[in-house]
Structure formats: structure tokens, C-alpha cells
Amino acid sequence: MLMCRDLAMIASDYIDGELNTAGKLSVKMHLMMCGNCRSFIGNLRASTELMKAHTSGTVDEEFVRRVDERVAEALEAKGRGNDQT
Questions:
Q1: Residue partners of 25: CB distance under 8 A and separation at least 6
Q2: Share of residues in the chain with pLDDT > 70 (%)
Q3: Domain ranges of the chain
């Protein structure tokens, strides 16, 4: 079973359609049961669309990596304080 912290690590790949069929199925099953992750994926999708709408089309890969790391760190810190699904 996919855990919240695992989903956070692959969320961008999921949104970008880069997961294999098994990965997509795991994410979808987790999202069916976890409202927090549904919100997270929705917010990530909205943020991604907002960034696309307001950029020149070029992506600063280092910036994206740092954002991904900060999100993962925040989720991990939250997970230490709460049980995660």
C-alpha cells in the first residue's frame, strides 16, 4: 500500500503522466482513501497550471528539485507528528 510520503515523492510524475500502469493504479487507490493527498494532488495540479500560464515555457530544473525536496520534508515532518495513511 502506498503511503502519503511515498505519494509525495512521485506526485509530479503522476501529474505529468510519467508513471507506469502499476504506479498510476497505486496512486489512484491511495487517493480514493486519503482526502489529504487528494487535496495535495489538486493543489499541485493547480500550482503547475499556474506556473505554466505565467512562465516563458522554460523550467528551472534546480528550482523544481528544491520545491520537491521542501514538500517532501514538510510531509515527512508532519508524518512524524501524525500517523499517515
A1: none
A2: 92
A3: 4-81
